Description:
Layout: E1 3-8, H1 27-38, E2 47-50, H2 57-60, H3 66-75, H4 97-116, E3 120-125, H5 146-156, E4 162-166, H6 173-178, E5 185-192, E6 216-221, H7 227-245, E7 249-253, H8 271-288, E8 293-296, H9 307-318, H10 331-340, H11 371-383
Parallel strand pairs: 1-2, 1-3, 3-8, 4-5, 4-7, 5-6, 7-8
Helix pairs in contact: 1-9, 1-10, 4-5, 7-8, 7-11, 8-9
Amino acid sequence: MAATAHVAWAADLLGYDFGPEHPMAPLRLHLTIELARALGVLDADGVVVADAGIAPDSLLETVHTPEYVAAVHAASRGVRDVRRGLGTQDDPLFEDMHDAAARIVAGTVAAARAVWRGEAQHGVSVAGGMHHAMPDAASGFCIYNDAAVAIRALLDDGAERVAYVDLDAHHGDGVQKVFWDEPRVLTVSVHESPASLFPHTGYPTETGGPHAPGGAVNVALPARTRPEGWLRAIDGVVPEVLADFRPQVLVTQHGCDAHAHDPLSSLRVSTAALRAAARRMHGLAHQLCDGRWVALGGGGYSVVDVVPRVWASVLAEAAHVPVPAHTPIPEEWRELVRREVGAEPPVVIHEDGDEQHADPSWSGRYDPADDVDRAVMATRSAVFPLRGLHPEVY
C-alpha cells in the first residue's frame, strides 16, 4: 500500500550552513521538523520519513555542467570561484558545501520518484526549493537546483508533463532557465515584481522558448501586496494554465518569504494565506494529477514566527492531517525555541485564521483600478493567447 507522504529528512540536512550571519539559517529547518513532530504530523499513519543520502555527480550533471559540479567540490575545500557564484556574499564557502547541497538534491529527487513510482501519494522536501541555482553557477543562497534535478529525473523516468508552481517571493529563475524551451515542463512563478526584488527577472513577457511558447508563466506582483491580493493572483492564473497543461505531476515550491515579517521581501502575506495556497496546490494535484504532488521549501527568513508554522502546515497538508488555524502550539516546541533561540515563540499555528482567505475568487471581479488585478491581467494577456486560452475575464 502506498504511503500518504514521503518526507525527505535527515539531521545531516542541517549541514547546509553559510554561517551565523547568513539569512538562510539551518535553524529554520530544525524548528520546522520539531514543530511537525510535536504536532504529531511525522507520526501520522502513512507518513514515511526517509534519508536519501548524497546525490551522485551523475545525477547533478543532468542539470548542472560537469565544470560547475567540479567547482563546488573544490569550494568544499576552500577554493573560491566567484565567476561561478562560489565564495560571494550570497553564497559564501563552507566546509563540505558539495555534500550538503547534494543531500538536498537527493532528498527532493527521492520524494519525486516515490510519487511518480506510486510508492507515495505526496512527497515533501522542506530543505529543498533551491530555485535560483543555474546550470553553471550558484545564485541567491542556492548551490544546486534540486527542483530542476527532480523534474529532470521525472522526465527521465517517463513523465510526459510536469508542472512547477513557485510561490516564493523571489522569481524561480533557475528552474525557468533550465526548462525555458522544454515543452514537457510548465513553470509558473508568483513573486514580487522584479523591479523591486532579486533576481530582477520574471516579467510577464517572459513566456518560454520557441519550442515551448507559453511554457513559462510569471505573475509579478507589486510590493506590499496583501494576503487577499496574493491569493487572488494565484487563483487568477494558476488553475487555468495547469488545467490546460494537464500535468501528470505537480511540483510546488513554498518559499514563505512573501510573509509580512520577512526581512528580504516587501510583500505582506500572512501565514494563513501561505497555508491556504498549499491547500490550493494540494487540491489541484488531486484534481489534475491523481494526487501526484511534490512540495518543496525554499526561501523564508523569519526563522521562528513564520517558517516553522508555514512548513509544518505544508507537511500536515501532505500527510492529510491538516492542523486547524487556531491550534495551540505544543509547549514542548515553545520551550525548545526559548532554550535554543532565546525568543518568545508564537502561541497558535495561525493567529489570523483561514476565514478571511476562504474565497478570493477571480472570475467576474477584475478591477482595472487595482494594482494586483492589473498585474494578473498582464500575465494573462502575455501567456494565455500562446496557450490558446482567452485572457479576458467573463
